[in-house]
Design a protein that fits this description.
Largest sheet of chain B: 4 strands, antiparallel
Largest sheet of chain A: 4 strands, mixed
Order of helices and strands of chain A: EEEEEEEEE
Distance between the termini of chain B: 68 Å
CATH architecture of one domain in chain B: Sandwich
Number of strands of chain A: 9
Structural class of chain B: alpha+beta
Order of helices and strands of chain B: HEEEEHHEEEE
Radius of gyration of chain B: 21 Å
Strand order of the largest sheet of chain B: 1-2-8-7
CATH class of one domain in chain A: Mainly Beta
Oligomer: heterodimer
Helix content of chain B: 10-25%
Helix content of chain A: under 10%
Structural class of chain A: mainly beta
Strand order of the largest sheet of chain A: 1-7-5-4
Number of helices of chain A: 0
Shape of chain B: elongated
Chain lengths: 128, 160
């Protein structure tokens, strides 16, 4: 659906690394009210070196990807292998201390909960 | 058509994307269903293939895939990669929906779901019974030892 005005999400251009290319992973971002859930396709990352940082409203995910060399002559090369990096400008009201992330099957999932006071609540309407 | 998303998506952007997909599907050969939501005519998945004297090695990136949903078939010099990524693996909204009944809001949806099938012709015939495949951290590596007749043999030269 169309993005709600709560979170202004923009991406920054990928960082240029001196050696090798840095790629911008495809992501899904879902807002379920209590938290923002981000899933990024980052296959081949060095799992213990993945970095997730949240600074001043900007969420950055990055991971080094070790080169995968194979013996023999390259017969067909349809994609390149490189590090991943991407940043997102999140709205206000997120709780940085409760961010959780896990990496499984090449997919990095990050959960960014909203601060408790900011979560929307339904306001009962009294009648009569 | 590549689209750069910046800031708020225009309210009609979803419609435009849908029209692009429709147009592309009408004007080009049916593309294999890729794992990005942008209309693409590139076959999926992209592969890197290497060849030694003994074997052919293939690598592809398939993140978020349950190995049980991956089917690899080899016959002669043909290799087929077939599989699917379901909502549970791909979409963070799947488990979200379980936790909260209200419909979640998608701010960005670039990772696709669905099935794919790609048939590749390898440089030489391979021995199907010795083909090995490994899926680790979303990277698929398939090692196909060549059929004995396809390996180079040193020929002895007789004299006299």
């Amino acid at each position: 659906m169309i993005a709600s005005p709560q979170a202004n999400l923009t991406t920054k251009p990928p960082a240029d690394e001196p050696q090798g290319l840095t790629y911008r992973p495809n992501v899904d971002i879902v807002d379920n009210g209590g938290e923002l859930v981000l899933a990024a396709d980052m296959p081949g990352s060095a799992a213990d070196q993945i970095e997730v940082s949240f600074d001043d409203g900007v969420l950055t995910i990055s991971a080094p990807v070790p080169a995968r060399s194979h013996p023999g002559n390259p017969v067909r090369q349809e994609y390149g292998v490189g590090d991943y990096r991407r940043s997102f400008q999140l709205g206000e009201g997120f709780d940085a201390s409760e961010i959780a992330a896990d990496y499984r099957s090449g997919v990095l999932t990050v959960r960014v909960p909203r601060q408790a006071a900011v979560r929307s609540r339904t306001i009962p309407v009294s009648t009569g | 058509m590549q689209m750069l998303r910046v800031g708020y998506p225009h309210p009609l952007e979803d419609l435009r994307e849908e029209m692009d997909r429709l147009w592309t599907s009408l004007t080009t050969a049916p593309p294999l269903h890729g794992w990005t939501r942008q209309a693409s005519t590139e076959p999926f998945p992209a592969v890197n293939i290497f060849e030694t004297d003994e074997a052919i090695l293939l690598e592809a990136e398939l993140p978020g895939l349950d190995p049980a949903e991956l089917e690899i078939t080899a016959v002669d010099d043909g290799l087929t990669l077939k599989g699917r990524r379901g909502e549970a693996e791909a979409g963070p909204a799947a488990e979200t929906a379980e936790k909260r009944p209200a419909r979640p809001t998608w701010h960005r949806r670039e990772r696709g779901v669905g099935s794919f099938e790609r048939r590749l012709t390898l440089p030489t015939a391979v021995d199907p019974e010795q083909v090995e495949a490994k899926l680790s951290n979303g990277v698929l590596t398939v090692t196909c030892p060549k059929a004995p007749a396809c390996r180079p043999h040193r020929i002895a030269v007789s004299t006299g």
